[in-house]
């Protein structure tokens, strides 16, 4: 009898323990369900508030502090339209600035918010320093594919025939041409066009009149020598070409007379 009672108590204890375990598990399950529901509601509300915050006081006007020659206002407007966040409160000016700096002509940009609906842009453009085969070369050394139309006569005209093997640094080349121009300027000679052929031989059109053939080597020495003797050259207004590729002296080709001197190197 005692054994039966003991067995019954053990069974009752096990049943009671099982019910408790089920109750604890059910309580934990409900807690997880409530947590999931809370997180879901929080996420939905948070997203709603975030979306609202991202669009409140939307940018409707853009203003510029300086006039721009190469950057078009439509380009800036297009960048703004591509932004997911358009609200003046939430828009990320650093991210927007980074995107605008990717536009070819933009050298620097500063952006300010003007309440309640305006962004003010201060944009500084790169300046073109030369025309290479009719296309812009900018002050940072980048060569743009954009064709030059109105500024062609104001920029140094460089014709580079072997574009498949471009210079490693365009700025160094422009600087070298500038040094040659300074030497010629002492004699009131101005380089209008500079030509580098496929053999890397240099020549220049001077004063819209004659071609100065400089060659592939010793270019600075040759131009310096030419500047010293230019005053002694007769009939300068009739010169067609001057060839500097000589160990000493030059060869001058006139429109009606041809003179030559010494040996070519």
Outline of the structure:
The protein is of the alpha/beta class and 265 residues long. The chain is 37% helix and 26% strand.
How does this structure look, described?
The chain is α/β, with parallel strands linked by helices and 265 residues long. The protein has two domains: 61-125, membrane protein fhac (Ubiquitin-like (UB roll)); 128-259, 3-Layer(aba) Sandwich (Rossmann fold), CATH 3.40.50.11690. 37% of the residues lie in helices and 26% in strands. It is built from five helices and 13 strands. It has helices at 2-55, 73-81, 93-100, 170-185, 219-229, and strands spanning 61-64, 106-114, 118-125, 128-132, 135-138, 143-147, 156-160, 191-196, 202-206, 210-215, 239-243, 251-254, 258-259. The strands form two sheets. It has a ten-stranded mixed β-sheet with strand order 6-5-4-7-8-9-10-11-12-13, with helices on one face. Strands 1-3-2 form a three-stranded mixed β-sheet. A hairpin with a 3-residue loop joins strand 2 and strand 3 (118-125). The chain is elongated, with a radius of gyration of 39 Å. The N and C termini lie far apart (131 Å). Residues 6-12, 35-50 and 258-265 have low confidence and may be disordered.
